[in-house]
Amino acid sequence: MPSSPAPAPLLTRKERCKEGQKLRQSVPRTTHAEWSPAQNRSEPLDLLTRQNARRITSLIPVRYERMRASPFAFLRGAAIVMAADLSGTPTSGLTVQACGDCHLANFGSYASPEGNPVFDINDFDETFRAPFEWDIKRLGTSFVLAGLETGLSSHGARALAELMARTYGEEMHRLSRLSPLEVWLNRIDLKDAIAHFEDAKTRRTTEALLKKRLNSTRNSFGLIADDRNAPSLKERPPLVVRLPDQDDTTRQAFARYVDTQPPERLALLKHYILRDVIFKVVGVGSVGTFCAIGLFTTADKEPLLLQIKEAQDSVFAPYAGPALHIHNQGERVVTGQRIMQAVSDSFLGWTHSADDNGGQSGTEVQQPASHSRRQFYVRRVKDTRLVAIGTDFAQEGLKDYAKLCARALARAHARSGDPVAISSYLGKGAAFADAIAIFSVAYAAQTKQDWKKFVEVTSGRLSQT
Questions:
Q1: Would the pLDDT of 224 be above 60?
Q2: Residue among 462, 420, 448, 318 nearest 22 (CA)
Q3: pLDDT tens profile 48-95
Q4: Residue 319: count of CB within 10 angstroms of its CB
Q5: Which alpha helices (DSSP H) does 177-199 contain, by range?
Q6: How far apart are CA 186 and CA 408, in angstroms?
Q7: More exposed terminus of the chain, fewer Cβ within 10 Å: N or C?
Q8: 261 vs 410: CA distance, rounded Å
């Protein structure tokens, strides 16, 4: 049997600090301001169309309708476009487990097992090992677009991206002085974070909002019909509906998930049985991927809601190298979430559908030959009202929200990256934050231009001229 490769030598903080500082010479921090579309840049609509080939055809119009709403909505749905663009920008060589779709609406709050609200990244469909700068540039762009849409001046919108990048650097510097274990256990308590908001009005409003929504898990988010004899899930057309031809696929995938759980999880799940399933149309970027909710109950009708969601290739995959030892895209998502989140869902797992032997139905996802199975991940159903607290208060407290997202992103990156090297590369000055602000403004302008063309083409105006 061949011997295992020797582990990489451990470096001291001083050595890692020197490595980070040395990278400034080969990739100056000011270069991160650069943005200009490549001469051979792919048309955004072409990239989206190729992505649609593996999505539910009947839902593509829903996806496009949501993306037409605004430049920010377009950014949310066009992660594949920005990933291609980011691949041509300078990178320091410092990689982390990246979110992959890092915009301000993909952060939020959820309850820890102890019932305490924590704030973190909450979407990992595109997670991948990649340059740390890519997440920061996408997040900065989202703040510029969101700021402009809420009425801020161009200067004010730029300042949001700069504030976010500066806060990221400050938080990474703080984390660089902690031990790896302390970094791993670090979390953002939302109540404490709100108490330190600078804007008093935002602080009061968000505290009241949080208090009101913390009890929402007690009624299963209003998804369960009020029928004690036969528990079932409620339809909410057109976003939560029954798809009888997908019922067996969903039930079989849930069964595979349960069968592959570790003994400690099975000790809990053995008390539940799957009672009902229902299909759900999800977020802007994920519209068209398969997603369903499963209602599990005990013999006494006590509920457990789990969501099964299709996982496809990350938009970063073509540009950041292969994902090692990943045989299921659901495993990629789950692994990324466990790495990045301080408090992860204990029900996270992955599964797959049966082999696809043809017979496409009206709601079937068209799969290329290399993907004979749909690949899924499973999690508990999120309390969307609790998750949305961040974006709700962001409308009137974007500065506080920018700092909160930056803290969460730095902590997530520090868990898998080298916080000492990253902090040393960033330094304590304004060079990196200024560069991110310049890039974010430029790419926001690019996004607005792409959005206008997208709206024109998808609304059929070109065919009428």
A1: yes
A2: 420
A3: 999 998 888 888 888 999 999 999 999 999 999 999 999 999 999 999
A4: 17
A5: 180-185, 190-195
A6: 10
A7: N
A8: 31
> What does the CA dihedral 249, 250, 255, 257 come to, rounded to 10 degrees?
110
Cα separation, 374 vs 356, whole angstroms? 8
**CA distance readout (Å), 278 to 282, 308, 378, 382:** 13, 10, 14, 15
pTM of the model: 0.90
What angle do the packed helices 431-458 and 79-86 form, to 10 degrees? 130
On whether the CB atoms of residues 278 and 235 are closer than 8 A, the answer is: yes
Which amino acid type is present at position 386?
A: L
Residue 443 in contact with residue 44, Cβ under 8 Å? no
Tell me how far apart the alpha carbons of residues 5 and 7 are, in angstroms, rounded to a whole number: 6
Whether 392 and 100 have beta carbons less than 8 Å apart is answered as: no
- Nearest CA to 431 among 27, 51, 75? 27
pLDDT in tens, 84-137: 999 999 999 999 999 999 999 999 888 787 778 889 999 999 999 999 999 999
> Using CA atoms, how far apart are residues 24 and 28, in angstroms rounded to an integer?
5
Q: What is the pLDDT of residues 178-187, one digit of tens each?
A: 999 999 999 9
- 387: Cβ contacts below 8 Å, ≥ 6 apart: 108, 109, 110, 122
